[in-house]
Every structure is written in structure tokens, then in C-alpha cells.
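Design request, C-alpha cells follow.
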């Protein structure tokens, strides 16, 4: 079950209860829902037909583009007195990472239509701070307790339920599930950096999804980029 309301885990932290007006996301064309006439493809056929699916899944000759943004929560505090792993908040470094992510979404013009997030405290704080900075309306956020430390299978099931008209989706969750999901979805190999990690805290992966959402499976996406907070080379406006 998903909900656009703030998860109960968020309200006991004073830094999440401030009210803000996220404003409106810069306008994007409102395309009609896309009909899927191609049926459900076996995973073994996704790789060879993924490019053709872009052309097949169209309405009135409009080519549907889908993008997936995979965001790992910002760095969290281990000594913050949290009662459980679920309740661990962001630390100062994690808070700064949220500003970096929001700035990238704005600068690259890749604001999501929909956000699906784990309802743990650290993912909740990450999403709320990114949304506030990037002026993403709260109505576009869905909190799902199933996504807390979820497996790849759980992520795939949730991705396959995404509304057809969603062009750009952002998901926020935890490792190892997110790293495993990323390597599963990408056509090209995705390897770790020198530190042995693919998705460190606050990392954002940008994928082009080459099939309709109900057909998301292994090797159905093309990796566009992976960025980390310490990769940022643009000024960060913390007052925005």
C-alpha cells in the first residue's frame, strides 16, 4: 500500500515538520496515457526487443520516453540514538548530499513525475529535502513500507505497477537492493569504483528505460550516468 501522506516515522523528527511550499514543477507536456498492445514479454526476449518496444508503445505517433532515477538515501548517523535501523536519521554529510542531488535534478532538467520511496526515516528525510530544494510537489511522492531494505524482486514488482503515463520516475531506497537492481536492469555492465561501491550514500543513477513499465525486467535499460555527491562541480545554493 502506498500513500502520498508523510509516513508516521517522519513526524517524530522536528527537522521534518517544517511546512514548505514546493511550488510547481516546470511544465512538461501532458501526454495521453500510453496503451500497451505488445503484451508481456519473457525476460529472455527483453534484451533483443527493448529498442523496438520504444517504437511499438506509442499513441498517435508520439514516441514515449521513460527514465528511471535510482537514488540511495544520504549518509545516515549511527550514533544518533535511534531506536532501530529504520529510525536512523541523516547526518550532516547526508543532508548536504540532498542539496547536491536536488541541484543536479534542476540543472540537468530531469525532475521526476513520480517518486517512490521507502518510508524509513533516512529515506524520508532524503526525499523531503530533495523535493523541497527542487520544488517537487508533495502530491508526486508515494511512501511504501515494503521498500525498506527491499529485495530486487520487490523493486521489480513495484516498477511494473508504475502508471503508464509516467515518463520519469525516481525511486529512493537502500543497499544492497538498489545496487542489485541497477546491475540487473542495465544492458551494459556496471562495475564498482575504486572503493568497491557502485551506489554509495547519496548516489544518483540515471537510466533510460527501453520497455513499458509492466515489462521491466533484466537488461531492459541503458545507463546514462551515475553521480555521487562528491562528484559535484557546480555551486550549491543552500538557501534555495
Amino acid at each position: 500500500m502506498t500513500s502520498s501522506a508523510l509516513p508516521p516515522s517522519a513526524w517524530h523528527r522536528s527537522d521534518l515538520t517544517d511546512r514548505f511550499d514546493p511550488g510547481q514543477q516546470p511544465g512538461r507536456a501532458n501526454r495521453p496515457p500510453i496503451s500497451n498492445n505488445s503484451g508481456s514479454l519473457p525476460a529472455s526476449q527483453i534484451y533483443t526487443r527493448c529498442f523496438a518496444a520504444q517504437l511499438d508503445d506509442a499513441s498517435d505517433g508520439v514516441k514515449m520516453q521513460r527514465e528511471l532515477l535510482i537514488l540511495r538515501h544520504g549518509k545516515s548517523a549511527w550514533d544518533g540514538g535511534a531506536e532501530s535501523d529504520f529510525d536512523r536519521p541523516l547526518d550532516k554529510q547526508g543532508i548536504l548530499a540532498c542539496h547536491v542531488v536536488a541541484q543536479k535534478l534542476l540543472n540537468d532538467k530531469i525532475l521526476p513525475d513520480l517518486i517512490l520511496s521507502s518510508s524509513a526515516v533516512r529515506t524520508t528525510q532524503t526525499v523531503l529535502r530533495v523535493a523541497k530544494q527542487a520544488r517537487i510537489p508533495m502530491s508526486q511522492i508515494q511512501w511504501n513500507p515494503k521498500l525498506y531494505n527491499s529485495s530486487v524482486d520487490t523493486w521489480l514488482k513495484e516498477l511494473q505497477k508504475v502508471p503508464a503515463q509516467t515518463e520519469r520516475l525516481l525511486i529512493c531506497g537502500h543497499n544492497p537492493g538498489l545496487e542489485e537492481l541497477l546491475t540487473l536492469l542495465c544492458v551494459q555492465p556496471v562495475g564498482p569504483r575504486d572503493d568497491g561501491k557502485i551506489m554509495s550514500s547519496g548516489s544518483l543513477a540515471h537510466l533510460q528505460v527501453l520497455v513499458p513499465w509492466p515489462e521491466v525486467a533484466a537488461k531492459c535499460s541503458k545507463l546514462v550516468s551515475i553521480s555521487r555527491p562528491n562528484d559535484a562541480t557546480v555551486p550549491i545554493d543552500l538557501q534555495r
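Comment from the thread starter after seeing the answer: thanks! The CA atoms of residues 67 and 90 lie 27 Å apart.
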